[in-house]
Amino acid sequence: MQTAIRQINPRKLLKLPYNSSSPQNYLLAPARASHYTWRDKPDNHPPTMSLVILANVCSHLQNASKARLGLTSVPSTNMILTLSLALQASGFLSSVTRGGLTPPPLDALSTYVPEPVTQENISTRRLWLGMKYYNNEPVLSSMGMVSKPTKRIWMDVDGLGRIVKGKEAGFVKGLTRPGECLFVSTDRGVMEARDCVERKVGGMLLCRVL
Amino acid sequence: MSVSRPARCLLSVPSIPRLHPRLGPRTFHTTPKLAERRRPRYTSIKASDPALIEAQRKAKVEQARETFKAYTAEEKEFLAKQYTPEQLAAIEAGEKAIDPVDLDARGVIRSDWGSLTYVDDFATRRPFVDKKASAFEGPVDPNARLMTLEEMSLADAEYEWNIIQQNPQEKDFPFDDPVRRAEARPSRTDLLKSFDEVPITVGSHGPISPKHQSIVAPMLPIGIEAAVDGTGKQVGDEEADVRDPDGVYDLLRRQTGLTLDQIFEYRVKILVQHRVVNQTRLGKIQSLYCLAICGNGEGRLGIGEAKGQETEDAMKNARIQAIKNMKPIPRYENRTIYGEVEGKVSAVEVKLMSRPPGFGLRCQHLIFEMARAAGIQDLAARVPRSRNKMNTVKATYQALMKQRIPDEIARGLGKKLVDVRKVYYGGRV
């Protein structure tokens, strides 16, 4: 039985060629065909990896704030990187740096040039995020998921507009607290909900930050 | 059988009266029983005995005279050789002023535990043994301020000039000679002395010498210690006010400096009131719990809690505590709160929501009262879980204090923030 399964090739079952170069088969494309990007996807969405890592990052940043850490690290993935940059643009983080398992030099966080990502070091890459504090309070005090790994929520501009105005839209609570932000994964990258409304783009709701 | 007692015949009557412990019914209070045998504090003296007391007193006087003898004529003669007549008169007056009996009773060298290990009459202060005398005890000048740099340098110059005037030096003083240099005035010692003597503060009547000034808190208002410990003089009206004949607010007025007018202007209300019971081994002890709120209608709010046997006492104390605990709460446009806030005390969760002008206070009665006292006009609230009255009030207070101010958030984020309402209405909201 075991040997039988091993002999069955899934590609043969799906009747797909081994070296597929057609965009429709990007999911099963072999690793070396790396010239496919998410732009080749029919709906132009970035590759939506599991949200579990994002959920862990949310909890981790909350914990780091409560522990008053100055610098903390999260896994380095494209989604986390774009989200971190959006958080920095919104003022929740002081710095975003890609580094290894040890933190980059603290005195040169902004000028630090990270070593290029290669196949050898990609598994050890981490994003080092600088946390912010003001008036003895963390600037980023709570961060929670809106989409869940088992239930993703997409929203159009109208819905986002309602949320930004503080109203409820599609079971998503509005941004009613002062300073509250909602981050949305769109085809133009991860953006804040207010920016999305301004640029008239919708997307997947990632997390809300306070 | 005890060894110390001799054996007695069983039939003989004991010569020592048997000890009968006076055991009555047990009382549940600490007051001594009236029926108990009284033991007078002093040995009782019969009316015929005063002579005995008089004799004792006379013996004391004699003993004192024996110890502290008056000057004899010879001794006085000898003294007259040593002292002037005025000094002699002073000595005699002193002798007459001090009663030898007193001297005998008081003028003894102490040997008790509190006594010192050395002989001292405390007439002089010895800097290494004695504690430093307190700098100043009188009233504090409210207008006192630190000198400016020019004034300080002037005071220093004046101090030095006085020293130079008092210690004239020859014109060609050899300052280069290290031995003679030490003799030059003002010297190093003068400099050290100047720290204690040159004033650095100015009051209403000119510079204040450091000797007459509280180093701890030079700007402290007059009589604040007396007001705090409650023993001092009453601030404000001396006689009782008609509105407060029992002096309920006297201590509060002294402690806070509030006037009765201000106190009566506050919106004080008792929101929660219920009996609580303490179970002791003597039974249940009931008392009344009160929770009062106090607001000035202009953004200050306080909560006061008190317990007491008497209803009136508990209510009074709760009100006073509420007045004392008043703190400013942030208000948006002096009418509502900033955004949405949540408070949680025990199982009570309170969610307060800001609302547009004219919305009113659409919330339950406890939150309504608090908002009215604090001067909030537009507010919505939800109490989704438990609705315990006491915890609802506490959670509401917590939520009101927890508000995040947009300006501070903007500074934390490093963003520029503009209130659109103010921009749109040209600052007329």
TrEMBL record, chain A:
GO BP term, pick one: translation
Top-level taxon of the source organism: Eukaryota
InterPro entries (UniProt xref): Ribosomal_uS8 (IPR000630), Ribosomal_uS8_sf (IPR035987)
One Pfam family it belongs to: Ribosomal_S8
Keywords: Mitochondrion, Ribonucleoprotein, Ribosomal protein
Main location: mitochondrion
GO molecular function, one term: structural constituent of ribosome
Subcellular compartments: Mitochondrion
Transmembrane segments: none
GO cellular component: mitochondrion; ribonucleoprotein complex; ribosome
UniProt entry tagged with the keyword Mitochondrion: yes
Record-stated family: Belongs to the universal ribosomal protein uS8 family.
Protein role: Component of the mitochondrial ribosome (mitoribosome), a dedicated translation machinery responsible for the synthesis of mitochondrial genome-encoded proteins, including at least some of the essential transmembrane subunits of the mitochondrial respiratory chain. The mitoribosomes are attached to the mitochondrial inner membrane and translation products are cotranslationally integrated into the membrane.
Protein name per the record: Small ribosomal subunit protein uS8m
Taxonomic lineage from the root: Eukaryota, Fungi, Dikarya, Ascomycota, Pezizomycotina
TrEMBL record, chain B:
Residue ranges that the Swiss-Prot or TrEMBL entry lists as coiled coil: none
A Pfam family the protein falls into: Ribosomal_S5_C
Cellular compartments annotated: Mitochondrion
Cellular component terms per the entry's GO annotation: mitochondrial small ribosomal subunit
UniProt key word Transmembrane: no
GO molecular function, one term: RNA binding
SUPFAM superfamilies: dsRNA-binding domain-like (SSF54768), Ribosomal protein S5 domain 2-like (SSF54211)
Domain S5 DRBM span(s) in chain numbering: 266-329
Keywords for this protein: Mitochondrion, Ribonucleoprotein, Ribosomal protein
Presence of keyword Mitochondrion: yes
GO terms of biological process kind: translation
Protein purpose: Component of the mitochondrial ribosome (mitoribosome), a dedicated translation machinery responsible for the synthesis of mitochondrial genome-encoded proteins, including at least some of the essential transmembrane subunits of the mitochondrial respiratory chain. The mitoribosomes are attached to the mitochondrial inner membrane and translation products are cotranslationally integrated into the membrane.
Family recorded in the similarity comment: Belongs to the universal ribosomal protein uS5 family.
Protein name as it appears in the record: Small ribosomal subunit protein uS5m
